[in-house]
Amino acid sequence: MNYVLKATNLSKDYKKFKALNNLTMSIPKGSIYGLVGKNGAGKTTLIRLICGLQSPTTGDLELYETNWNDSSISEKRKKLGGIVETPSIYLDMTAEDNLKQQYYILGMSSFEGIKELLILVGLDQSGTKKAKNFSLGMRQRLGIAVALCGNPEFLVLDEPINGLDPQGIIEIRELILKLTRERNITVLISSHVLDELARIATNYGFLDKGQIIKEMSAEELENSCRKCIHLKVTDTKILGNV
Ligand code: ATP
């Protein structure tokens, strides 16, 4: 199987505290990988390491088969876009200007693709409205559009559904599904609520106290949650009379 990311015995210490503790996981190409863990489990720490915002203390973290300390890792990171904690948007700018700004930052030579990105995230009608006047859902969608500048193949979203109303949650879900369908993007999405991910994730990693305690496919999760009663009987003949 093809993986976009593999972590092996990955640890991150903050002084004596182990935020990640020998964590091992792998994210298959084309999957929507739901990273589930309660508050403080280490989701944001892991995402920071994946995005290169912090370095691991020990262990391997391979992005597209390149370890985090390899000299060619910055090339591989160009395939990655993400939102860590809060969306990186300028509140005093319109949606379009935010995307133009990101194009400048990435050193892109033209504004080609901005209109399509605005349509993709449903902000093409937001016009001159500044991001500070957007709803939380609109800000999240703009954050995703910013993360998509430069056409990444791997999108990392840290709790993108947090604080959204039911309609906002549906919009983000549909957007993520559209991204995997139309752009074949692999998505890592973290949440502390399994139910929020259950409608879209194809794979899961359950994070607890800095360790992945279980990885499974959506199918395996469904089978393990299926309600059934297992009966052990001593005399099967009696069953014939029931
Ligand atoms: P939440 O869902 O609340 O955002 P999380 O799963 O994202 O939680 P992290 O933010 O990764 O968890 O934090 C994991 C642990 O590491 C927490 O106990 C946190 O207090 C600790 N931690 C995170 N960053 C630092 C830091 N810079 N210095 C010291 N401890 C830290």
Describe the structure.
The chain has 242 residues and is α/β, with parallel strands linked by helices. It is built from nine helices and ten strands. The protein has helices spanning 43-50, 73-77, 95-106, 114-120, 136-148, 166-183, 194-197, 218-225, 237-240, and strands spanning 3-14, 17-28, 32-36, 58-63, 66-67, 80-83, 154-158, 186-191, 203-208, 211-217. Bound molecules: adenosine-5'-triphosphate. Adenosine-5'-triphosphate (ATP) binds at residues 14, 17, 19, 37, 39-45, 192.
**What structural class do you assign from the helix and strand content?**
alpha/beta
The general outline is globular
* Share of helix, binned: 25-40%
Q: What is the chain-wise order of helices and strands?
A: EEEHEEHEHHHEHEHEEHH
Distance between the termini: 49 Å
Radius of gyration: 21 Å
Strand proportion, as a percent range, falls in: 25-35%
Q: Identify low-pLDDT runs.
A: none
Task: Give the distinct bound molecules.
Answer: adenosine-5'-triphosphate
Give the number of DSSP strands.
Answer: 10
* Main pleated-sheet profile: 6 strands, mixed
Mean pLDDT: 92
Counted by DSSP, the helix tally is 9
Strand order of the largest sheet: 6-7-8-3-9-10
